[in-house]
Design a protein that fits this description.
There is one protein chain. About 5% of the residues have low confidence. By secondary structure, the protein is an alpha/beta fold. It has a 6-stranded mixed beta sheet with strand order 1-14-4-5-6-7. A 6-stranded mixed beta sheet has the order 8-9-10-11-13-12, with helices on one face. Helix 1 packs antiparallel against helix 3 and helix 6 packs across helix 7. The protein is built from 9 helices and 14 strands. Strand 2 and strand 3 form a beta hairpin. The longest helix has 26 residues.
């Protein structure tokens, strides 16, 4: 028994047991006088059935595309002029698209690759990202079946690498650095284990750091310090930190970077009107954990609601939080904003 098991039991009681009890009362008292309050309560209990069907069989597979735009001053520092999409140029590239497009494919968290996961990848690739980030929980299954299941994930990564030159992964709660490295193999995708990589997109230098969940905290702090640059000044370079949990933003609290990308929360997986997600399993504010682009401690942070859902003992549902792929467009500071 764990917390997810208790939630699962409560969900089954609420969507099966309660409606069943309501139906029994209505049928058992048919033709008899009963208080109107009892009738109303029983009818409301029956309403839990379609909610349960929707939360279990519809919303978990109703994938959406979450598109956001973020202005990055560093993109101006390398020669980008005001405006985007064909106005001016970057580092001598005239008339080109000044955007750096990042695709986020978080928390597939699946026991195997099927049509749903492949469709998510194809939809992401359809936006032509320059970079694809997979911030943890790529898979969720026992080590005993790794050899059997891994090839499907390897093919998925190879498909992404075939279209996108820069692909980065970090580990999460349900996968490991070693497992991810076996999956990516020699595909060209890179698993960042408290490591940094650098590259250019249309003349714009980019530095990407990835932090490992349950890894060496001291190594993570050193990586974050290198990512920021000497004395916290790395103008002219876009700096991105990838972490599974949004709490990775704490690594750059004193010296903000241009963007933190995370997953983990699934947006709460359930979100209630007015209240939001009751459970996020993170220390960041609830509105940040709920997903999307926000700012925390002076650093923009994008939290994906994820593609999959919690497995194991947890109920296989989503309610009020559709799964998503993320498309983040980084633009020169004169061309857009946070949001």
């Amino acid at each position: 028994m764990d917390g997810f098991t208790l939630i699962h039991v409560a969900y089954v009681v609420g969507t099966v047991g309660v409606p069943l009890a309501g139906g029994i009362v209505l049928v058992g008292t048919r033709g008899q006088a009963r208080p109107w309050v009892v009738t109303v309560v029983c009818v409301l209990a029956l309403a839990a059935v379609p909610v349960g069907v929707y939360a279990t069989y519809v919303e978990p597979f109703w994938l959406k595309v979450d598109r956001v735009e973020l202005a990055v001053p560093a993109m101006l520092a390398v020669g980008a002029l005001d405006g985007v999409d064909g106005v001016g140029g970057v580092d001598g590239v005239d008339g080109g698209d000044q955007r750096i497009r990042i695709g986020v494919l978080a928390d597939l968290q699946t026991t195997g690759v099927g049509d749903y996961e492949r469709d998510a990848v194809e939809r992401l690739l359809g936006f032509g990202p320059d970079v694809v980030v997979l911030p943890g929980d790529l898979y969720q299954f026992d080590a005993a079946v790794f050899a059997e299941r891994a090839p499907g994930f390897a093919r998925l990564i190879e498909r992404i690498v075939g279209e996108v030159p820069h692909v980065y992964l970090v580990s999460g709660n349900t996968d490991t650095v070693a497992g991810l490295r076996r999956i990516v193999g020699g595909s060209g995708a890179r698993v960042l284990d408290n490591e940094i990589d650098t590259f250019e997109v249309r003349g714009v230098p980019v530095r990407v750091g990835g932090t490992t969940l349950f890894g060496d905290d001291a190594a993570a702090r050193r990586m974050a310090a290198r990512l920021v640059g000497p004395d916290g000044d790395d103008r002219g370079r876009v700096r991105i930190l990838i972490g599974h949990k949004p709490d990775a933003v704490e690594l750059v609290r004193a010296t903000p970077v241009d963007l933190v990308i995370a997953g983990h929360t699934h947006g709460g997986q359930v979100s209630l009107p007015l209240l939001g997600p009751p459970l996020t399993l993170t220390n960041v504010p609830r509105h940040v954990a709920a997903g999307g682009l926000h700012e925390l401690h002076g650093t923009p942070i994008y939290v994906s609601t994820g593609v999959g859902r919690e497995r194991g003992n947890a109920p296989q549902l989503r309610l009020g939080v559709r799964p998503s792929i993320g498309i983040i467009d980084l633009v020169p500071s004169g061309g857009g904003g946070l949001g």
